[in-house]
């Protein structure tokens, strides 16, 4: 194995001269990117299945709207537990190729959940239990997945890699409901959950096959030979077995940019989760669209979302994370508030397609900030990020948005939701942004 130069560590990319726009990487890095992108697509499909079959679920179990909403809250609360637990485990087991083992375990829970939802769907208790299992899987697989991407690509192209791997989200946001609708025309609603094991098992096998020690050594040798920066000082890093989850989380929260990134991420998700929960209702109420047309239009942002993620993620490698996130805040304001003036279908489609250029874009850039700032605790950092923002945010914002609509109307609701990313500018403008600096191997960036 190649010796590790003592001065190649960096907490992130340095904007400025010398940065090539052409993306080059080792073939194994590209394969890892493809596999993790498919894993994110599976995560997005998982999130889309229940809302798409919710009318059938309500009818099968005799649920009220309140009970149906509580069922989704159970999923989000379970996401918190999975994100923190598996994020910690992935750091304890070890960085790099070792993370694939923890990731496979988290993905396996989704496969199990999808299979037993189909087999035991006649039982309401079993159905709820499987929602818990799948929530833990969602929370555990995403942070580990992001950490894997960060550790198999050179630092100079981290924004591109994380942004590209996240294209599964916008694709799933549009394709998920369409796929479920097609499947339900030929099979029961319970059978739609079998999509998860059918996709998940091949993805798990591929990652275990590609994510080996030898492959990571080859990737790091390729990176060093071209004068680029390896994500970690060495492939051989000792697992953090002696560190408790509380100590790991304490160390993560001690990094100022991680704390700021969590607040920025929460602001974006506050707006997105609240808006998407009631977007179909809003479009149906405020335009001439039927319910079916509103459902289709609600996924329009997914058609352009992949473009925004790749473009803004790549741009953040060149001009820095913070400027790109400021542009995303402006883009969200410019494309969401005008929805209040929408009265026709074409207006809704136009604005939602434009929102897609910004909707998913902030998250991979924010995730890159976290990995830049705490590369040695990437799993715990991402677990804490996703647990607090997606899990707790999803459990709270839907109820808050519903209350605002009932008591204050759509105008006030949109303003409160958009206030999330706007207030996120306060911690965002304090993010230092990563700068290249020499460090000794094994040191942790402050």
UniProtKB/TrEMBL annotation:
Top-level taxonomic group: Bacteria
Keywords for this protein: Cell membrane, Membrane, Transmembrane, Transmembrane helix
InterPro entries: MFS, MFS_dom, MFS_Efflux_Transporters, MFS_trans_sf, Sugar_transporter_CS
Annotated transmembrane regions: 28-50, 70-89, 101-127, 178-205, 262-283, 289-312, 324-342, 348-370, 382-404, 410-429
Listed name of the protein: MFS transporter
PROSITE patterns in the cross-refs: MFS (PS50850), SUGAR_TRANSPORT_2 (PS00217)
Domain Major facilitator superfamily (MFS) profile: residue ranges: 32-436
Organism: Streptomyces tremellae
UniProt-annotated location(s): Cell membrane
């Amino acid at each position: 194995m190649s010796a590790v130069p003592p001065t190649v560590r960096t907490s992130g990319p340095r904007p400025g001269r010398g940065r090539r726009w052409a993306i080059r990487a080792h073939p194994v890095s590209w394969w890892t990117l493809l596999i993790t992108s498919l894993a994110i697509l599976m995560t997005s499909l998982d999130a889309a299945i229940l809302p798409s079959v919710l009318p059938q679920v309500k009818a099968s179990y005799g649920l009220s709207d309140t009970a149906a909403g509580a069922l989704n809250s159970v999923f989000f609360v379970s996401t918190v537990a999975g994100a923190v637990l598996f994020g910690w485990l992935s750091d304890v087991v070890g960085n790099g190729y070792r993370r694939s083992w923890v990731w496979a375990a988290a993905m396996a829970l989704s496969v199990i959940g999808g299979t037993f939802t189909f087999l035991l769907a006649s039982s309401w208790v079993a159905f709820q239990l499987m929602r818990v299992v799948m929530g833990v899987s969602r929370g555990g697989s995403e942070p580990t997945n992001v950490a894997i991407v960060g550790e198999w690509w050179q630092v100079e192209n981290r924004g591109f890699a994380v942004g590209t791997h996240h294209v599964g989200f916008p694709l799933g946001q549009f394709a998920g409901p369409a796929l479920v609708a097609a499947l339900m025309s030929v099979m029961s609603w319970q059978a739609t959950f079998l999509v998860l094991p059918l996709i998940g098992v091949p993805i798990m096998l591929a990652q275990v096959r590609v994510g080996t020690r030898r492959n990571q050594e080859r990737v790091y040798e390729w990176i060093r030979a071209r004068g680029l920066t390896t994500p970690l000082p060495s492939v051989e890093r000792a697992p953090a077995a002696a560190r408790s989850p509380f100590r790991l989380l304490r160390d993560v929260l001690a990094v100022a940019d991680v704390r700021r990134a969590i607040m920025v991420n929460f602001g974006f998700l506050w707006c997105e989760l609240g808006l998407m929960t009631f977007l179909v209702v809003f479009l149906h109420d405020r335009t001439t669209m039927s319910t079916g047309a509103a459902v289709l239009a609600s996924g329009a942002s997914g058609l352009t979302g992949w473009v925004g993620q790749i473009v803004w993620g790549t741009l953040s490698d060149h001009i820095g994370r913070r400027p790109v996130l400021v542009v995303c805040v402006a883009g969200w304001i410019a494309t969401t508030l005008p929805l209040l003036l929408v009265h026709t279908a074409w207006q809704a489609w136009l604005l939602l397609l434009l929102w897609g250029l910004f909707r998913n874009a902030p998250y991979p850039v924010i995730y890159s900030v976290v990995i830049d700032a705490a590369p040695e605790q990437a799993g715990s950092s991402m677990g804490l990020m996703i647990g607090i923002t997606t899990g707790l945010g999803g459990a709270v914002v839907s109820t808050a948005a519903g209350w605002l609509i009932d008591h204050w109307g759509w105008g006030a609701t949109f303003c409160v939701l958009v206030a999330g990313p706007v207030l996120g500018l306060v911690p965002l403008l304090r993010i230092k942004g990563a700068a290249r600096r020499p460090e000794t191997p094994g040191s942790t960036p402050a």
